[in-house]
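Run log, item B.
One chain of 143 residues. Sequence copied directly from the ordering sheet:
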Amino acid sequence: MPLSGSPDVFGPNPYVAKSDVLGRVVAVLCGVSTQRGLTIEDYRSRAVLAGQIHELMATDGECKPGAVVERVALLVFFEVIAGGVILLDDVVEVAGVILGEVGGFNDTHMPNHQNICLISPKLIDGADQRLQLGDVVRIYRAS
């Protein structure tokens, strides 16, 4: 079954190029759960607008559309400064450090904010990673 918004006629990835999404950290989070029950939505992309605030979280487990993620570390809330499109597998950097790749999206708190779940080799929250208010967030395609 194809992902939502991705009919077979377009193939697995119709994106040829896209701009980076840029933001700044507005809240640093602490907390790790091994029983989060976060359902990953059936989307390969989400558009984000300048001025919106969204949450980044990480998992060291499986994270893909349709999965239920149990192991989650809370990272940050960030304000979008330069909007764009976020895709599965995009790289997420905060303050120049790669935190992981986008594994999926969760709509639990919409329309307040989107949860963006990153696949990371480590389950460490934003406080323990020493993320700071005002840190630059950059979300981009790997080369």
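Observations after the first pass:
- The CA atoms of residues 60 and 121 lie 5 Å apart.
- The two ends are 28 Å apart (CA to CA).
Flagged for discussion on Thursday.
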